[in-house]
Amino acid sequence: MDIKLLPSLLALSPPPFIHIHDPFDQVSYHTDTLKADYHVEIDCIECISPRVLYTRIINGLASWSVSWDNACECWGGRSSGDWSASWDSFIQAFTVLARQLQTVDSQPRFTLLLRNADMLREILPNLIVPLARLSELSNSSVTIIFCSKCPWVDTRPVWGSSPDPLLVVIPPLTAAQTISHLISLFPSPPSTPRISIYNPHLKPLYEHYIQALHSACALTVSDPRQLAYIAAARWPGFVSPVLQEWHASRDARRSGKGPRVPPTNQDGGTSSEGDEEDDDVEHYPLPTTEERMRLLHHFKPSFSSASATLYPRLKHARAWARQNAPPHTFRSSMSPEKALRTEQDSSANTLLQGLTTHVKLMLVASYVASFNPIRTDARMFQRTSDGIKRRLRKGGGVRKTRRGTTTKVLVPFLQLSRSLAGPSPFPLDRFLAIYEALCIEMKGDTVSFDREVTRVQMLTTVTELVGMQLLQRTGADEKMDGSTMLKTSIDLSLSQKMAKQLKLDLSEILWDIE
């Protein structure tokens, strides 16, 4: 039976016993339609004894709350006796409650929704049959609804004394339905600041973000609630580069206007026309297609890391988001017009001033490893047997035709520019190889050192750079070996500044500098 037809059935002729097979806990979206005159929801995981179950049912149907004002007594007080001691006393208390709630015109209808009903077989197996026959034993209009992630075959008693319930199966949501549901969870408060992570103006970007998150995590996480938890943890970091550009653009507009006297209205108060003009939507543009692709390319590896950590609850969402926050130097756009300097940029530059020569060289090597294709390493750092550099730049070759003429072979550029695609992850072994090649380039300077000692110290330095958010680990594995995937967090301007301090020509070791 379809879950959408169940409210109509409960209104016309409510069955005494219903079992809902709900693998992904979607019955929460239909709870309001299942309520009767008196409704109570109970989680069977909390019912560790029959007394707890009886107390939850009676107090819930009677809308009785246990507090210090009533001496922490249950419904009925001392006059009704200890009705939670056994099943017989519970039936008597239930009958008395139904008689008190009965009116002259109609008889009250009760609905008991038991979540995780499959746990009754492990905790209270002797109560499955009595609960299924509660309407018959109490002689009242009661509907017992078992909601379980397991089918009825795995929940029913083995001796077969339970009546057959009305079986309701809630199918899992499709991919389109899941994405639509996650997008609908985007909050729409009545009034929010213009620069806010849940600004309604950001909802189109949130839709692309949800689609990318679902495609990366749907194979391992299919529960919409868990996907919503992961999406809420990653969204503040995903949208932070856009908000930083909005902050910088707003500060630039305000500094360009200079001091101004706010206009006054007819009542003598200050008018908010200037603030409304500053809050126009056109002043806060959404990322373009290229900028959105850059954001998705940068954050997509963290989606799988988030599902591996947050789905089993190995770490709290807020702590994970704080640890995996994007670097302050990352921008959603590589355009010079939008690459405005903010306070985060100045703090990052101040941080780089205190780095040693070895650390700066490691950061330059990480930038080269992130933006150079793997196949170009041998060309960019190739040397002859005499130690002379021999670099082969990219370009078309010369091919002879059948008639003996020579023709220039044009290689079309079909891929997206790596500067637009953002930094790519690289293994630790490749990073060490590029770092040693750059050390050979600087052998005439103060970088002469013992390679064995430096290789031991480099693992510790890499860990420190990850903690400083100058490097990023893209994998969920905590071990540090040659296959550990890393990614740079610095931009082109900072890498050029460090390369200039190290007397390196960055344009000579980058394959694509556009």
TrEMBL record:
Residues 355-508 form the Origin recognition complex subunit 5 C-terminal domain. Pfam families: ORC5_C, ORC5_lid. InterPro entries: ORC5, ORC5_C, ORC5_lid. One of its GO terms (biological process) is DNA replication initiation. Keywords: DNA replication, Nucleus. Residues 206-248 form the ORC5 lid domain. Residues 249-283 are annotated as: Disordered. This is Origin recognition complex subunit 5. GO terms for molecular function: DNA replication origin binding. It is found in: Nucleus. It comes from Hydnum rufescens UP504. One of its GO terms (cellular component) is nuclear origin of replication recognition complex.
